[in-house]
Write a structure and sequence with these properties.
With about 300 residues, this protein is mainly β. It is built from three helices and 16 strands.
Length: about 300
C-alpha cells in the first residue's frame, strides 16, 4: 500500500506580499507504488497513481492559510526508483486568475472590480429630467418674427464612469449523459452573456444593484480538459458592467423640423390618460435577463443540451 509524506524540507517555500502570503510550495513524497499494475506497460502511469493516493491534497484544497488554494500538482519519478514519486504542490492566493472553482457552494464568490469612462448621449440631466431649451426670436428678424417662440428638447454628450465586476473561475462539466464540453461551455455562455440581472438585490450575490442595472458584457472560456467521457473542465472569464440608468434602451420622439425631442413628451405612465396611442418616451425591453446569484450556484446542475 502506498504512503504519502508531506512537507519535505527540500523545496518548501512561500512568497509574501505586503504582509499577505500570495504563494506556497510544498513537497509530498509518495512511496510504495506499483508500476506493474497497468496493462499498458507505460511506467509514466505511476505518476498519475501518485496523484490519486489518499492523503495527497486534492486540487482546490485550502492550505492552513484560507487565502491559499491548491492549483497545481506536479509529479516527478525518483531516479532509479519507479515505485517512488515526489509531488510538488503549488498554492496560489485566491485573487489569482484560475484559482476559484465555480459554483462556489457554501462559500464566497471572489469578484474583482475595475472602472473606466465612456461617452454617452442623453436628453436628460443628472436628476433624470428632460433637458428643455427656449428661444425668443428678435422682432427685427424678418424671417422669424412671426414664428411662435419654440421650446426644444436638448441633447448632450457627456462622460460617465463605467464600473465593471470581473469573475474568473474553473467549471467542471459533467456530461456523462452525452454531449461535448465545448457545447456545454457554449450553453453557459448563451445563458449569461449579454443578459441583465433580474434579481440584483439578493444578499448572497456580491454585486449589488436594482434589477436591470448590471449586464454581462463578456463570457469567455478556455477548455482545459477535452476528455471524451465523464467530465471536462474549462476556465471561464465573466465581466459585468453597471449602468445606473438601466440597460434596457430608451427612445424618444424626435421633431423632424428640429431633429430634437420636443417639449412635454408623454411617458409610458402618462400617455394613455392624455388620449395618445403611444408614449413620446419609451423604454424598450431588449435584453434577456438572468439571475446571477442562481447562475453561479447552479453551474453544475443544468441539463446538457441535445
Amino acid at each position: 500500500m502506498a504512503e504519502v509524506g508531506l512537507d519535505s524540507v527540500r523545496d518548501l517555500s512561500a512568497r509574501e506580499r505586503w504582509g499577505v502570503t500570495m504563494e506556497l510550495h510544498r513537497l509530498a513524497i509518495v512511496t510504495g507504488l506499483d508500476p506493474a499494475s497497468h496493462d499498458s506497460g507505460e511506467e509514466y502511469e505511476v505518476l498519475f497513481d501518485a496523484l490519486d493516493e489518499l492523503g495527497l491534497p486534492a486540487l482546490g484544497a485550502l492550505s492552513s492559510d484560507p487565502n491559499l488554494i491548491l492549483v497545481e500538482r506536479n509529479p516527478r519519478l525518483f531516479d532509479g526508483e519507479n515505485d517512488k514519486v515526489e509531488v510538488e504542490l503549488h498554492y496560489l492566493h485566491f485573487s489569482e486568475a484560475g484559482t476559484q472553482a465555480l459554483p462556489v457552494l457554501g462559500g464566497t464568490l471572489y469578484v474583482r472590480f475595475a472602472t473606466s469612462t465612456r461617452e454617452v448621449e442623453s436628453n436628460k440631466d443628472r436628476a433624470g429630467d428632460q433637458i428643455l431649451l427656449h428661444h425668443k426670436y428678435d422682432a427685427a428678424d424678418p424671417e422669424r418674427a412671426s414664428l411662435v417662440s419654440p421650446h426644444q428638447g436638448g441633447m448632450i454628450r457627456t462622460y460617465e464612469t463605467v464600473r465593471t465586476a470581473i469573475v474568473d473561475g474553473l467549471v467542471d462539466m459533467n456530461y456523462a449523459t452525452g454531449g461535448a464540453v465545448a457545447i456545454e461551455c457554449q450553453w453557459i455562455v448563451d445563458n449569461i452573456a449579454n443578459r441583465v440581472n433580474v434579481d440584483g438585490n439578493d444578499n448572497t450575490w456580491p454585486i449589488k444593484g436594482e434589477e436591470g442595472l448590471w449586464r454581462c458584457s463578456v463570457a469567455d472560456f478556455v477548455q482545459l480538459d477535452r476528455a471524451s467521457s465523464e467530465k471536462g473542465r474549462a476556465l471561464f472569464h465573466f465581466e459585468f458592467e453597471y449602468n445606473p440608468d438601466g440597460w434596457q434602451p430608451e427612445v424618444a420622439f424626435i421633431d423632424d423640423r428640429t431633429n430634437k425631442p420636443p417639449k412635454g413628451l408623454y411617458t409610458e405612465a402618462t400617455y394613455a390618460a392624455a388620449g395618445l396611442d403611444y408614449p413620446g418616451i419609451k423604454t424598450v425591453t431588449k435584453y434577456h435577463t438572468a439571475n446571477y446569484q442562481q447562475f453561479f450556484q447552479q453551474l453544475s446542475e443544468y441539463d446538457p443540451p441535445d
